[in-house]
Amino acid sequence: MTGWTILCDFDGTISVEDVIDSLLDRFGRPGWETLEQDWRAGRIGSRECMTGQVGLLDMTQDELDKHLSSLWIDHAFPAFVAKTRELSTPLRVVSDGLDYAIHKILGRYGLDDLPLAANHLAPATPPRQWQLTSPFQADGCRSGTCKCAVAAQAAKTGTKTLLIGDGASDFCAADRVDFVFAKHRLIEHCRAAGIPYVPITGFEDALELLPRLLDGSLLAEHTPGEPALAVTIP
Ligand SMILES: [Mg+2]
Ligand SMILES: [Zn+2]
After folding, report:
1. C-alpha of residue 210 to centroid of ligand 1, in Å
2. What is the pTM of this model?
3. Residue 114 domain boundaries
4. Please, which domain of life does this record's source organism belong to (predicted)?
């Protein structure tokens, strides 16, 4: 088996907006900003931050569902998924966000059957209260979903691994995969760390690049250390 497996971030990569940020803006009780500052300053990990923040959400199920129905995904993501299926390349969504939200949003596009590793959002008591658990956390890691553990596990399958992502939650996984399609802050991380990558603006680019990834030509052009400026997206 010499194919590729794709690990794909959700918030900011598949979705346009960050789901938790948008929920906190709308339904967060006071205190979530302090947790955000503690996380940004490195005083707490994302798991502690989000567990606390989700506990501060004040919303009904209907309010949550209505809000989620207003969030959009990258317009080319459904075509990208169709292409991966046509080319028999497994894609797994690996997210430090909320499983319920991801299923709900992807469901509008008939894509809620994609394999998913994410934090688990569940209603709590009393009503309007919510609770977060992290079934994909790992020992010694402060993230909710340990993407580095998921990437390490994918590497053991004998296939090569592509990561598609945009932010800080993707940094540790980027160090453990064979190639990265990078957006936003992940671009600079890959460049600085010498990780083979191509910068993308969205799934339209990813769709163009996928055949060149699978035929090996992208990887051949991008051995670590080569300047990323040599890349052209057709
Ligand atoms: Mg992201
Ligand atoms: Zn981790």
Report:
1. 20
2. 0.93
3. 4-230
4. Bacteria
